[in-house]
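Thread title: Can someone regenerate the structure for this chain?

I was given the following input by a collaborator and told the matching structure tokens would be attached. They weren't. Posting the sequence so someone can regenerate them.
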Amino acid sequence: MPEMSNDAHLHDLCRLRSALEAFAVRCWRRGNARERIAGDLRHQLGVLKHLATQGEYEAFHKADQEFHRTSVAAAELEPLLKSWEIVAADLDEWVFKVKQTYWPNLMALYREHELLLDAWHGEDEGTADQATHQHLEAGWYRRKMAEGCGGEDLDPVQRAVSFIATHFASHLEMAWVARHVSFVSASHLARMFKDKMGVSPLRYLKQVRLERAAQLLRSGADSVATIAGRVGYRNASHFVRDFRQMFAVTPLDCRRGRTA
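Best answer:
Regenerated them for you:
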């Protein structure tokens, strides 16, 4: 059997690290210390933001590693933490080089961490898993784009669709998604998105939020305002307006099983 290439070996290590981190997040999300852990990670985000604004790559890298280590350590499983530390050490030099080479603006990388924590602390476990995977794959996508490599995983529309499906509950700016997720301009993504999906990226985001809200209304007892916040709306009245426009019924009518 031919020897595995260095790139393939590094990519497998990234996938292993992703799996370890996703498992750790599942553990602390289910525990009683969830709010405290999220608060600790939010504090570390503040450190990352400060270092990003200063363009301090080496310090940012060290704080980034500590951010992820804190999340893994929160699972309180020593074998898990030791395994993560071994994998992270093997990847350390490559990860730092990727940051320096493919993130000319550290604020974009900081924003990815902010969205990652939103997903980790959100309501959906599957979304947290997917966000972890996307976060740790981002360097590979950026490298492929820089080297002009193709492939279905680099389709701008599909990357935006996948990212929106994971982070719909966060505040998303489509210009940021276009540039840092799909690697195209906002206008180009809008044209491609309309051709492929039949709607604009912003309209698609709204549809994803409202469809998820309808599921929550039918399956749970949370208030309309709570559900509005869970799917990314900051204003409950705007949520009710958009919900009625899309489904021709109010959120309360949806909960009661009424249809248009």
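Residues 6-154 form a domain with the Four Helix Bundle (Hemerythrin (Met), subunit A) fold (CATH 1.20.120.530).
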